[in-house]
């Protein structure tokens, strides 16, 4: 994909790029700096040949996914913390489920930001877990609404949140799979 | 007062989302003008935060709970700056897509704010 292949800054996933300002291609474009360490070790491809590198799993379209996971970590986390503190007795199962969802979101967020091949695999597994959670909880809220006394992030397949909780793990899995395919093709 | 600001923030957020969505479609990263737009939306959201807190201290109460109301006000004020920060890190079309998402999220937060405040009473 052309627009994701234009990065020339030679950064690797997992080098803490969240803490660095965005380098301009003009400043950081030193193809000669592409040392073997610039590739992930699992990459298996000849490194340092100055070819354009693909974006890491937390870059390009991945950065949008990272942002959305950050959003949902904050949304689900703050919601469950508030509800667990303020009204735990009302619907403990629903609030604990929201807390679990927040932990899963946070874990995927960290995985995406760290990057690398093993993180990619763990990320796929967690996205699958998240998808299973949305599907199970979504179905349960329709089949046995009495189980939950209040809404969770995953109730009714995330309808309260524009179904993003349902779409996000699918997008995440597709993106991580494609990022992996790009690795083996490189 | 809150009601008018809610409408203003919502419209501004949607305009920002459309503008950055256009940049995404044209395969462009966010430019200085986009960041000025984000600043305008953020100033509106900050004004809403201040007015909301002032109204609460003035004796009014949010129907959905004061704590939740302030939390949503804070979230609304942070949504676009957070998206702008991420778009600074991502100098591709996807940085524009992030700001588009941020604008849409802010618009949704405004709808929730309207409900929590209690719709009718100002």
Automatic annotation (TrEMBL), chain B:
Entry's transmembrane regions: 35-56, 68-88, 94-114
Cleavable signal peptide: 1-25
Superkingdom of this protein's organism: Bacteria
Keywords on record: Membrane, Signal, Transmembrane, Transmembrane helix
Protein name in UniProt: Integral membrane protein
Upper taxonomic lineage: Bacteria, Bacillati, Actinomycetota, Actinomycetes, Kitasatosporales
């Amino acid at each position: 994909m052309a627009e994701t292949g234009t990065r020339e800054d030679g950064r690797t996933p997992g080098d803490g790029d969240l803490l660095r300002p965005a380098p301009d291609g003009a400043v950081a474009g030193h193809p000669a700096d592409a040392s073997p360490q610039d590739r992930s070790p699992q990459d298996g491809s000849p490194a340092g040949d100055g070819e354009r590198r693909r974006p890491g799993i937390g870059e390009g379209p991945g950065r949008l996914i990272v942002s959305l996971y950050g959003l949902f970590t904050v949304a689900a986390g703050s919601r469950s913390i508030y509800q667990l503190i303020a009204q735990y007795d009302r619907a403990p199962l629903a609030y604990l489920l929201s807390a679990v969802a927040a932990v899963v979101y946070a874990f995927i967020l960290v995985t995406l930001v760290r990057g690398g091949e093993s993180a990619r695999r763990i990320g796929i597994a967690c996205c699958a877990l998240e998808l299973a959670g949305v599907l199970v909880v979504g179905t349960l809220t329709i089949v046995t609404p009495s189980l939950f006394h209040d809404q969770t992030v995953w109730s009714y397949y995330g309808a309260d949140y524009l179904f993003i909780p349902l779409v996000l793990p699918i997008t995440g899995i597709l993106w991580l799979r494609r990022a992996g395919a790009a690795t083996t093709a490189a | 007062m809150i009601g008018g600001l809610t409408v203003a923030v919502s419209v501004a957020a949607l305009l920002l989302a459309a503008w950055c969505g256009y940049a995404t479609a044209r395969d462009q990263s966010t430019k200085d003008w986009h960041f000025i737009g984000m600043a305008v939306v953020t100033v509106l959201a900050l004004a809403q935060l201040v007015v909301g807190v002032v109204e609460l201290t003035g004796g009014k109460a949010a129907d959905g709970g004061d704590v939740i109301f302030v939390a949503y006000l804070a979230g609304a004020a942070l949504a676009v700056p957070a998206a702008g920060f991420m778009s600074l890190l991502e100098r591709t079309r996807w940085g524009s897509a992030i700001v588009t998402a941020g604008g849409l999220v802010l618009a949704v937060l405004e709808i929730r704010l309207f409900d929590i405040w209690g719709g009718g009473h100002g």
